[in-house]
């Protein structure tokens, strides 16, 4: 069969029966079921392989998203906190910050005359009992908003170190005002040695610097009791989270 295209060029198309051959212009042409099957199978194999690769890629993406979901959530929560450079705590020069929301006169505390810069004042009660009291006192403030630079004279808002100072004060233990000073009192403990009631100190997320930017109370059972960002006073998991990655040291003041 002869076809003519728009350019005037003719093309000859010849149909060859399956299993036969044709000699044309000195060139032999043959058609076989095997060659057709081979060509068709090759095309199907390529399509199946492409589809399989697309499935593998999709599964890989989904697995990656799932693996990172918890950490992404924690990172987002962290960046709701006031960035430190200044991160979460007052420096010694900022201790005179006044509270914009007023003070709670029924729970105002004064500076103890016997407080020392590098030592916590303890009581004579058993340490386990005091630790339970610390957690109990802290939990009653659950939901109180976080506010950077909160006055130590109020319980209407807290930053991380004013919260720890307040809670320990209520069980008879005096702590310095900011987290960097608090990280120097008591006995240093490792992550594996943490007990209920210990102070836990953190550096900034992703930082190699050992500069303290946050403090929490270890509440036992892999839980931290602290305040930050949007949740305010809350409890969060410790091990297996970004908080564990930020861990700098623990301090036992009970």
Explained architecture:
This protein has helices at residues 33-78, 127-139, 160-169, 179-182, 242-246; strands at 2-4, 10-12, 21-24, 27-30, 187-189, 199-202, 214-220, 223-228, 232-237, 247-252. It is α+β, with helices and mostly antiparallel strands and 254 residues long. The chain has 2 domains: 1-78, no CATH class; 115-252, endopeptidase fold (from Nostoc punctiforme). Strands 5-10-6-7-8-9 form a 6-stranded antiparallel beta sheet. It is elongated and about 110 Å long.
List keywords for this structure.
single chain; 254 residues; 2 domains; endopeptidase fold (from Nostoc punctiforme); alpha+beta
End-to-end gap: 100 Å
Number of helical elements:
5
Number of strands: 10
CATH architecture descriptor text of the largest domain: Alpha-Beta Complex
Quaternary structure of the protein: single chain
Poorly predicted regions are 69-78, 80-119
GO molecular function, one term: cysteine-type peptidase activity
Biased composition (Polar residues): 88-102
Signal peptide: 1-30
Domain NlpC/P60: 128-254
